[in-house]
Amino acid sequence: MKALSSCSAFFLAFSRRDHTILISKNKNNRCSRLIISRHYMTASATTTTIQAEDSEDERRTRWHNEFTVNFLGPPHALASLSVGDTTIDGQITRLSSSPDLFLIRNHISSQMDRDSIKTGAIDNGMKLAGTTKSDENTVRKNSYLTWMNPYELLLSEECNQKKGVTPILLALLRSARSTFVHSTMNDLFDRGEYNYCMAEDVQVAKYDIGGMYNTHHDGYGRFLTVLTYLNGVGGTYFPFANNTSTNGATNTITCQREAELAAEGAGNSGLLVVGIEGIEAYNIGDDDYSNQTLPNNNTNITSDYSTVQIQPGDAVAFYNYNADGEKEWKSLHESRSVPREKWIVTNWFRSESLTGSLSSLYKASLLDEDET
């Protein structure tokens, strides 16, 4: 039987008791899901009615919750960690609170599993990453990627050939979701309400020597990024992580261009992930290198930057949207030009409803459900 997730049909729709799910095939041959929920039709009217009936205190509480409860942020166990704190099991450490950024040790602990993912990606076909602003200004260089749907692999005719990587990708996706997605969003995912929370296909990327990816926001409703370093080569740079600058341009970022300009002059702040390539690859940590302009895109690195050392199988998780559904521009990041081959695997979790133009209505609906 052909797997549903393979999207062999160009368009498919089916109804559930409370919403209709539409599945279409996009140009990248990956499934996109659009859910038309009952909340879309009723949230506005419900909010208006309740505001009329609620007391003043209840209205204040509702207003406060709509601005502070963050379904797009970390679950409570992680949200309560201060910068530098580590979970009881010693596996997860908070690296930054703005943006929310965490380090995960041994996210893929097995060398065999990491090698299986790389082999599976090669077998799947690695394509040149073509993100560009113009022919002259390439955002991404010397990098290749592929997309892998573990559910499709599990049920497809090719499963026998790729069975080694399929359970690994499934376990990785489930671990990332259960650990880093808010409990309310997890419940919605389990109920099939993918407009609130869905997992994208897993992306595996390879950077050749000199490979890089300029400062960018993951966007597209991707509220959570979990990035695992397969061979332990880092180079991911977060210009605003742990940024204590009082510069207004840095602390009040409202658009992408403003964020990019602020990132270029972030000063002696930010955080760089350094792996087996060593800190010297980025001319950081030695006073002799301080404030020097470096080759390729390795600029503005000084000895005052924070660094975190990673090993093969470690990962970082960070959140890309605020509680109000607007982009968190401080989650901008880049891949510095690497001195050796680099392999990463990325899990993205997306919310169409809570990051769209009607995000406030959808959030109000969720808060209503929590109260009942």
CATH architecture: Sandwich
Largest sheet: 13 strands, mixed
Task: Report the average pLDDT across residues.
Answer: 75
Q: How much helix, percentage-wise, in residues?
A: 25-40%
Shape: globular
> What class do helices, strands and sheet pairing give?
alpha+beta
Number of domains: 1
Per DSSP E runs of 2 or more residues, the count of β-strands stands at: 16
The H-level CATH homologous superfamily, spelled out, is q2cbj1_9rhob like domain
Quick one: CATH class? Answer: Mainly Beta
Element-level helix/strand string = EEEHHHEEHEEHHHHEEEEHHEEEEEH
Count of helical stretches = 11
GO molecular function: iron ion binding; L-ascorbic acid binding; procollagen-proline 4-dioxygenase activity
Domain Fe2OG dioxygenase: 198-351
Keywords: Dioxygenase, Iron, Metal-binding, Oxidoreductase
Protein name: Fe2OG dioxygenase domain-containing protein
Report on the architecture of this protein.
It comes from Fragilariopsis cylindrus CCMP1102. Its cofactor is L-ascorbate. Helix 1 (38-53) packs across helix 11. The chain has 372 residues and is of the alpha+beta class. It starts with 10 loop residues before the first strand and ends with a helix. It is 28% helix and 25% strand. The chain has one domain (76-355): q2cbj1_9rhob like domain (Jelly Rolls, Sandwich). The longest helix is centred in the first third of the chain and has 16 residues, at 38-53.
